[in-house]
Structures are given as C-alpha cells and as structure tokens.
Amino acid sequence: MKSAIEVNSEIGRLKSVLMHRPGKEIENVIPDTMKQMLFDDIPFQKIADKEHDYFTNLLRNHGVEVVYIEDLLEDILQKDDVRDDFESTYLNEHYYQGSSAEDIKQYFETLSIHDLVSTIYAGLRREKIHFTHPSLHDVAGTNAFDPFLLDPLPNAYFTRDPQASMGSGLTINHMTFEARRPESLITEYVMKYHPRFAGKINVWLDRYNDARIEGGDELVLNDHVVAIGCSQRTSTRSIEKLAHKLFEDPDSHFDTIVAVQIPHNHAMMHLDTVFTMVNYDQFTVYPGIMNGGKMNINILHPGKDNTINLEHRTSLPDTLKEVLGLSEIDLMETGNGDPVAAPREQWNDGSNNLAIAPGEVVTYDRNTVTIDLMRKHGITVHEIYSSELSRGRGGARCMSQPIIREPIEKN
C-alpha cells in the first residue's frame, strides 16, 4: 500500500501540506500567561487570519493541497467511541480525573463537534464548568490570574513542530513545554483514526518517547540524509533514538543523520529558525550560529550489531558538501551578514523559508535584506504578510508540515 506520507527532501515540489488556521486561541493569550504560552506578544486574530489565508491561497495557487488538521480532528470525532476516548485522554493529560473529568465531559457533550474542536484549541474558561464534587486541583486558582481550566493552544498554527514527516512516515513528537503537548495528542489521534492516514504510515517515534524532540529541528535534506538540531527543544537522546529507528527499520531508507548543535535559547529555538535548505546546493543560514567555522556537528551512521557510528565535524559548509555529495554550496547569510540586519531579520524568521520547489520559497515580507539577497542568488521568492503571524516567532516553514513532496531529480 502506498504511504499517505511521502517526504524525501526539503525542496521537492510541495503537493500536500498540513496546516492550522489561527483561531480564538491566539486572542486567549493574556499578558500574565504569555510566558507559559511561549509568546512574546499578543497577535490580533482578525489580521492574523487574513495573513494566514493569504499564505494558504498562495500555496493553493501553486498547486498545493492545504489540509487543516482541525478539520481532520472534526472528522474522527464523529465516531462516539473515538470522541469519548479523546476527551478522556485529553482531560487526563490535564490532570482531570473521576468526577471532575465527568463534569467537563458533560459540558463537552452539549457542544457540536465543531464547537468542541474550537474549544480544544481556544481553551476552556473556568466559568463554563460547575464541579459537582470539586477537588483542590479544580478550585485552586479560581480567583487567580488564569481564567482557564484547559489552556488555549496559541502555538498550534506552527504545525511543523508537533510532528515531522520524513520518508514514508513521521515522528509524533514529545514536545518540550507543557503548553504545546496537546498538539501532538491531536496528531496521534488523527494519524491513528483518520482514514487518510490510519494504517498507511510509519511512526518512527511516538509522543511517549521520554526525550524531547520537535519538528522545527527535523530537516529532510534528501532521501537518505536527515539534519536534526540539538537545541532548546530537541535533545541528543531523542536524536539517538530516532537514529536507531531509522537505521534499523526496513521501511526507512535514511542512513545518515547530521546532528547540529545550536544555541539553546528562545531566539534560536529550532534549527529551521537559523538554517533552511532552499535549493539543491543553496541554503539560508543565520551567521550567529557559525562560531567562526567551529561548530559542534556530529554525523551518525549505522554501525555493526545495531550500534551507531559517530563522526565529529566543525564546519557546516564542509559537512553539507560531504553528506550531500556536492563540490560547492551557496550559503546565504540572513540579513546579508550585516550586524544589525542579520539578528533583526533572524528574530523575524528570515532563515525560516518554506521551499515549494527547488529554488522557489515562501517567506515573510518583512525580511527585506534577506529577500533581496536570495533573489540576487537566483531564488524565486514569494512574500507573505507578517504583521501578526510573526509575533508567534515562526515563519513559513514553521507554519507548514509537508505531507507529500514530489521526488527531486538528482542534480
């Protein structure tokens, strides 16, 4: 059976992509909860939706099928047993059990499936529920700053992170911060129960893996090489676990993992915020990670008896040439390497480009220096609006999870 996921590069023509249209959840972030919700500012939903629609329409106009994960969730919750199981699991992961969980589920039963899914994303306000036998957990903080029993999921429009497509499967990710973990629970249920995916994909790692990993750190460079950022959001232990799975599973054709150490901070939370592949031999990179050419890079290959061979490197350009079999590469520095433009445009995801075909990318319009540089290097650039979406600290790649890419011709 043909897999429902086929992603063997970062640059093959994009045919199908998983996305989430920002909803009420981004306006349910308040100043007191911004930090725990991983936001630096509060977006304006009305404009964010217009910007997101412009992005998705651009993709459609280039032959890309846009699949909304919230629609897939609605589809599977039509079945009563799936709905009941999802609600129970969701509440259990929010520490609601027994009569408390039943009280919330009774409220859920008053909602249409569409409104239930909207509530899952937007969050559940405290005043909606009257607990019949409240526990301390239920009532603690009732008069405190947080008005929610179930927190909103404002990061959900960054669909790159809860899962990562590679080859004929995906990782369903153990998210680093609690604020994002429900997103990969949604992925788990969609992949398990939706007829589009159920029984038609490989799960390389599931969300119950005990080490953190997020999709922004997982880049498919070609059909046998994966680059993974060792970052604030992805640990070395998860990289090794994924390497074992990819090297040992007969359904996987990946035999090389490039683990790239990047600074562990919010400004550079994932590898794709500082590095993306945009063509066969062209890449955008934030110069702040280059460290004078002395980076911490390790290449993982299969060893004997299910072991892993490790080779250390320090040069990103040389490593890319080695694993991709290239004689030369073109590294385009964010902000053209300018000490003011580079960190400014990196903060606004100047390196977070989504390739929709070799040498053709989508990126935020605000990163003018980087856009001009890419065009001078022969890249076709499609600009999308970025007033409100960029407040969440993620660009075009962050907001999209490829499901199908066409195979690329060997260059």
Describe the model:
The chain is built from 11 helices and 19 strands. It is of the alpha/beta class and 411 residues long. The strands form 6 sheets. A 5-stranded mixed sheet has the order 8-9-10-13-14. Strands 2-1-19 form a 3-stranded mixed sheet. Strands 5-6-7 form a 3-stranded mixed sheet. Helix 1 links the parallel strand 1 (14-19) and strand 2 (65-68). Helix 2 (69-76) packs across helix 7 and helix 3 (80-93) runs antiparallel to helix 7. The radius of gyration is 21 Å and the shape is globular. The relative contact order is 0.16.
Keywords:
411 residues, alpha/beta, five-stranded mixed sheet, three-stranded mixed sheet, 28% helix, 20% strand, globular, EC 3.5.3.6, Arginine deiminase
Q: Radius of gyration over alpha carbons? A: 21 Å
Determine the mean pLDDT: 93
Distance between the termini: 29 Å
Proportion of helical residues = 25-40%
Please outline the major beta sheet.
5 strands, mixed
Low-confidence stretches: none
The tally of helices reads: 11
Q: How would you spell out the order of helices and strands?
A: EHEHHHHEHEEEHEEEHEEEEEHEHEEHEE
Counting helices, strands and paired strands, the structural category is alpha/beta
- How much β-strand is present in the residues? 15-25%
Shape: globular
Please give the order of strands in the largest beta sheet.
8-9-10-13-14
Secondary structure: number of strands: 19
